Fold each of these.
Amino acid sequence: MKSNGPRLFCFGLGYSALALAGRLRARGFAIAGTVRTPDKVPALQARGFDVHLFDRGRPLADFAGALAGASHILSSVPPDGGGDPVIDLHGDDLLLLGGIEWAGYLSTTGVYGDRGGNWVDEDSPLDPGTDRGARRVAAEAAWAGTGLPEHLFRLAGIYGPGRNPMVGLRAGTARCVVKPGQIFSRIHVDDIAAVLEASIDRPAPGRAYNVCDDEPAPPWEVIEYAAALIGMDPPPRVPFEAAELSPMGRSFWTESKRVSNQRLHRELGVRLAYPTYREGLAAILAREAGDGDPGSL
């Protein structure tokens, strides 16, 4: 489906990509992209999006047709044990694309590894401490080799409507696990979209940006603030050593760092709508009260 105006193609029309799509749609962009399962197609088509099926076992049926007219590309598809599925299945196709004004890859601050609570910025060495982080480093390099005007966005922990500590508190699944010295950075999904939009307006191919808010904080502090916000008692604090965590859950606690976002402020001119988790959670709660739908974007 070709468009006469700008067209964004998203590999992975998921949580973060849809937040950007909403902003760009309001500016006249046509939106296209991929989902993994057929059940997601009707709702996105109802929004006027051109939707295609794609995953590791199912390459795009017609790459040229799906990408026809694309001026901007975003990939939020995470690497798996085999590598980056988009690059592995369509890397050669990407090399042949023309007319792309901007491309973005959503990575993670996990590429920096554990820094013992110290600060990192985009010039810090990449030193992943997990297989998951190492796969991201490899994926970043793969996307940089496509020849596209590529921009890297290293995202901190994502939260927003439908995906935040208040959801876990209400469901009774939130836990206040405490590990002294543990610091995480996070980012509201709307601020991710704002950063991506600003980059589209100020392209700088080859540049990497840390996408996080202004205040790294211990995770239990955020849970307790969220509980107070919705008038609930917080879960009891549990020492990390005594917490029963899955191997995946435990792996997130092996790394502690403070992530600097000064480049996105300085170079992209972004002023975050939610500079800390306090503004972000309060806005989500206010939105719930206004529209009764905590999961809407």
Note: Residues 137 and 271 are 28 Å apart (CA to CA).
Amino acid sequence: MSHKLKVGELKEDYLTDEEIWRIFTIVLSSKSVKSSTYKYALIKALIENLYQINEHFEVRYDQLAYTFTKIYWNLIVHHNLMNQNRGKRARVVTIIKNEQVKHSIPSQMIFDKLPDSLQLKLLSKVRTTMRENVFGALYGDTRGFFYAFDHKTEILRFNPAVHTFMLNYQRLIIQLTNYHMSAMIEDLNEVPSINYLLGKVESIAKRSSLKPFEKILLSRFEARCFYCNKELAGMKRVIHIDHFIPWSFVQSDNIWNLVLACSKCNSSKSDKLPERDFLEGIKERNIQLYVHGDDRQLDKLMENYKPRKIELLYDYSIKNGFDTIWTP
């Protein structure tokens, strides 16, 4: 009954990669009781928030709930995959479906386009479900070796060794998780809902627009392409916002990983890494954002950012197969 736990203490600080793989194998196998897809969704949420931790390897419940809700919004609202549980309907399905019907939300609506008040309402309800059924369950399957958690502070703390392991094998872990989550959803749902199922599970919806980030960057920096330094002005100079580290790897939108770019650089770079010389440039740019200090919204967006973080992100993306280097 580990899912009923309100506090879970970390059982071991150091684990070898072999020991961590052994635990992951058990989590993904039939030895782990999975009455719903919740555990897979939590693993996906942990992966998306690997770079959002503070110096104590902590991540807040609301950060994890945001990703968790996005995953199920995509599956339930966009793709009508209603069966995420063995037996009665999963609570997260009921929460999301009820709000969709109540507010007459079309199936094409992306989660982050919802009004802030509705997002917060959904996140609060989903976070409660995660407290009751998710954090303790995966904690039990990983035998307390992967993370600690506390419902009172609403903080989850990674085992540092597991955090490093997830960074090193990020793509492989997410691919394994997507495969097993897809297999379970396929078993629970019927055709035609499962057509192209793996693609539906793999996608964690991007923000519908990066315009808010564009406005912030333009308010503090010249309208020039970060890569080729061309001026982004005039009728034909369309401004693009590019993920310095490709979105297909990091799968999240952080202002410290976003740069102004011209259309030529943005399209040719695609999902490649820029050459390493640009690392110093984005670190310098981020210092200017980080020390601004007079904008609460920006302070929030830069929360937990450290210069070393983007260096690690760059190195780990190469380890995960993003080894084609682009230059303008």
Note: DSSP finds 15 helices and eight strands in the chain.
Amino acid sequence: MAVANAAVKIPLEAPVVERRVRNRAATEQAILDAAKRLLAEEGFQNFGINAVARGAGCDKQLIYRYYGGLNGLLEAIGTDLGSWVADRIPDDTGGMFLLTYGDLMERLSMLFLDALRADPLMRRIVAWEVSESSEQVRRLSEARSKALAGWIERMRGSLVPPKGVDAPAVNAMIFAAIQHIVLASAVSDQCAGLALKNSKDWEKAATALKRIVRGVYG
């Protein structure tokens, strides 16, 4: 026979402070995701507090509270772009032996090509770099460039470019070429007569890019 006054187990809820912290983190992430999505789809023209709040499904006052307004939100997106490089361009060799600086740059070129093709927001930012001159674009561009430079420094170790080669200038040209063909393909599925419609076309482009890298770095 059960004892009448036996203790009844009641599920414990998370402490109020813990729930608030968790809810704030979720809201901050929702705001950041909405801001990135809005930038990717519509650009800066319609980028505002009200539009971001609608996309995040929250009160616009929370954007001011958590990010201090649009400038703070852009700073957070810039920081997130640094994470973009870490997520999309991992610190590993992909099974490739990095014996020379040329190996390093071939690996980075292929990773950057694939990452840029897969990310509409990053493509937008690259397009803005050559079409707009604003503080917002500059912040986002610098965040990506800094993250890429950091990847090279972490991965290259004792690897150095061939003597007499201005590696920063050459690498800038390589990145510019990658950015141009990716943007061109998004508009017309081709670049300077090179078809970029399917995986076979992109394999051809990747092979050509590797040859350019090897032509400079060996």
Note: The mean pLDDT is 84.
Amino acid sequence: MPSFDKPTDQQEATRDARGADSRAATEAALFEAFGGVRGMVETTVPGLVFVAIYTVKRDIHIAAIAALGLSLLLGIARLVRKDTLKHAFSGVFGVAFGAVFAMMSGDAKNFYLPGMLYTLGLAVGYIVSALAGYPLMGLILGPVFKENLSWRTRNPGRKVAYTKASWAWGLILLAKSAILFPLYWWGDVTQLGWVKVALGIPPMLLSVYLTWIFLSKAPPPIDVFAEMEAAERAEREAEATAR
């Protein structure tokens, strides 16, 4: 006599397949949203070039122009490959802002200050948004998963996952800021530069990994775009029938 308490092999296989699909979709969405490993490298290498050249030459202008030139080349490479440009533009803008700030102030440490302030502001944004019930990670990834804000009212498990992910990002970025700002105030530019380069990719990878863990265990997203298309299709069919 079959047991109705335990799922059948077919049900378990279907559930496992759906879980694998959900994890794969989550991984793809995270890579799209955060630029993947390549995007992380592109945001880290210009800073490495700046500190390396400044350590040897002790010339702010040469180091800043070299870092900006490399950032532009990386952006052009994305353009040639017809890749998404949003990460390249943000990288070029950040490097350009830091380069101009460093050259105008005459202090090489200021090359890193705009990025540090952005990181600190982002950390605060993640934490405050999680406390307010509108976790920033959900606002970022909701459109990527085609669920928009449906996770807030219709999918509480997703909201919990986005809240946990936002806390993870906020605390990790806050810890990064707690290491970098004392070096900005009391260290020299080479110390700040090398530590910032070292903290470029690992915290990001940890944050993305934790986000993937939280979302892969959450319920699947509700595709609100598919729902709207289905509603429009049903409305057109109803109008056609009425005629």
Note: Residues 18-242 form one domain.
